[in-house]
Amino acid sequence: MTAVRADRAPEAALVRRPARTRILWLLAAVLLLAALMAASVALGSRDVAWSDVWAALGGADRTLGQAAVAKRIPRTLLAVLIGAALGVSGGVMQGVTRNPLADPGILGVTMGASLCVVTAVAFFGLTSPTGYIWVAMAGAGVSAAFVYTVGSLGRGGATPLKLALAGAATSAAFASLVSAVVLPRNDIAGGFRLWQIGGVGGASYERIGQVLPFLAAGFAVCLLCARPLNSLALGDEIAAGLGERVALVRAVAALGAVVLCGASTAVAGPIGFVGLVVPHACRLLAGVDHRWLLPFSALAGASLLTAADVAGRVVARPEDIEVGILTALVGAPFFIHVVRRHKVREL
Question: Where does the protein principally reside (predicted)?
Answer without folding.
Answer: membrane
